[in-house]
Amino acid sequence: MAESHGGAGTTAHTEADGGEHDGGFPPFDSSTFPSQLVSLVIAFVALYVIVSRVALPRVGGVIDARQNAIDGDLAAAQKLKDESEAALRAYESDLASARTKAQAIVTANPGCILQLRAGAAIRHTGQEVLHVVELLDRAIT
Q1: Which site in 6, 29, 85, 141 is 20 to 30 Å from 109, CA atoms measured?
Q2: For 52-101, how does the pLDDT look when each residue is reduced to its tens digit (9 = 90+)?
Q3: Are 103 and 125 in contact (CB under 8 A)?
Q4: Helix H segments across 1-131?
Q5: CA 49 from chain center: how many Å?
Q6: In this structure, how many other beta carbons lie within 10 angstroms of the beta carbon of residue 116?
Q7: What is the C-alpha separation between 91 and 83, in angstroms, rounded?
Q8: 127, 120 in Cβ contact below 8 A?
Q9: Residues paired with residue 130 on neighbouring β-strands, in sequence order
Q10: Strand partners for 131
């Protein structure tokens, strides 16, 4: 037979007392609304202060720095564009001047001479097309 280890009046109790719950879920309990609202206001004020004093100035600084970089890049691009346009105008002016000053077109290829003479005649350039030997002959005599 099994022996008993305790007194006759003792029994094992495995359940915990849950206490008395009157209103259900605490955030929905109307008696705790004022304290919840106060803690909510404190949390939002703290969040607002942190964001307005720390986060927003940093973001504003980054935005200002980026805008300054963009403005600088646009100014540099405009300067380079103006320089390239000035160089293009100078090139076109020099090219037009060279075309008006050119007296003759010289080549060593007889086939090119024929092509160049035809092109000069079509465009009415007034330039003479010569073979290299003809130019040297003129220079010597």
Answers
A1: 141
A2: 998 899 999 999 999 999 999 999 999 999 999 999 999 999 988 887 77
A3: no
A4: 33-50, 56-101, 110-123
A5: 32
A6: 19
A7: 12
A8: yes
A9: 106
A10: 107
Furthest-apart CA atoms within the chain: distance in Å: 150
What b/e sequence results for 14-48 when a residue is b if at least 16 CB atoms lie within 10 Å of its CB, and e otherwise? eeeeeeeeeeeeeeeeeeeeeeeeeeeeeeeeeee
- Say whether 104 sits in a helix, a strand or coil: strand
Reported as a pLDDT band with limits 50, 70 and 90, residue 105 is confident
Matching residue, tokens 């100035």: 57
Cβ atoms 117, 129 nearer than 8 A: yes
Angular region, 124: left φ>0, alpha ψ -120 to 50, beta rest: left
Q: Tell the burial category of 128 from Cβ atoms under 10 Å away from its Cβ (0-12, 13-18, 19+).
A: middle
Nearest to 27 by CA among 14, 37, 12: 37
Specify which residues 107 forms β-bridges with. Answer: 131
Q: Any idea what DSSP says for residue 23?
A: S
Q: Where are the domains of the chain?
A: 32-100, 102-141
